Amino acid sequence: MCLRTTRNTLDIESLNIVAIVPIRDENMTVGGRELYEYTIEHAKQSRYVSQTIVSTDNEEIRSNAIKMGASVPFLRDEAHSTFDVILEKLMQYTLKELEDRRIYPDVLVMMEITFPFRDARLIDEMIHQLVTEGLDTVIPARKEYSSCWIEDDGLYKRIDQGYIPRQFKKPTYTGLKGLGCVTQPSTIRKGQLFGESVGIYNVSISSKSNSYRIIS
Q1: What is the mean pLDDT of the chain?
Q2: β-strand 107-110 against 49-55: which pairing, if any?
Q3: Residue 146 lies in a domain
Q4: Of 107, 123, 129, 210, whose Cβ has the fewest other Cβ atoms within 10 Å?
């Protein structure tokens, strides 16, 4: 399904929106709990996510994820479980495995376990933005007005607009896709996370809780 062709007409709650949580075979805990458990809970709290699917090659993680109410319809093969496999290829493989099992998402939400703290509204707000604006992808990002630089052959080049008053300066954005990249399956099938039309969902970090909150 191409959401762009039905802009502003879709009933979000009628869509099959699938959250995918990729997990490697590693033991990481926060606050006495497995790190991935937080992300599974975040996905399951979403009003719009129809199914939370864990992509793992570990039987113990699979068993625990199922106890938490997630689905693990297959164990990932060895070729897609090494640390040099890029996320885009892992998601492409995972989607193919799901479709081979007759699971056909209308929207995919990729959530990485390295973000155990999320605003409870984040995922649903991003899904709503993708559907109502007819976008290919929505990612959370932090707005920056500070000077930003990139390295190019040993030289550093400034990529922001320079020293001009803040009210006249266009911001740069630091993408935080691990918080929750909402995208269309057609994009993932191409081995990409981001489609042609990308929406930014503005977030900031709370210094007190070290969690990301929504900026309205």
Answers
A1: 90
A2: unpaired
A3: no
A4: 210
Instruction: Work out the pLDDT band at 32, boundaries 50, 70, 90.
Output: confident
Q: Does residue 168 lie within any of the structural domains? A: no
Reported pTM:
0.87
Residue 159 lies in a domain: no
CATH number of the CATH domain containing 102: 3.90.550.10
| Domain limits for position 111 | 3-140+175-214
* 162 in any annotated domain: no
Q: Is the pLDDT of residue 26 over 80?
A: no
Which DSSP string do the residues of the chain spell out, in sequence order?
A: --GGGGTTT--GGGS-EEEEEE--S---EETTEEHHHHHHHHHHH-SSEEEEEEE-S-HHHHHHHHHTT-B--SPPPGGGSSTTS-HHHHHHHHHHHHHHTT---SEEEE--TT---B-TTHHHHHHHHHHHHT-SEEEEEEEE-S--EEEETTEEEE-S--S--GGGPPPEEEE-GGG-EEE-HHHHHTT-S--SSEEEEEEEE-TTT--EEE--
Counted domains in the chain: 1
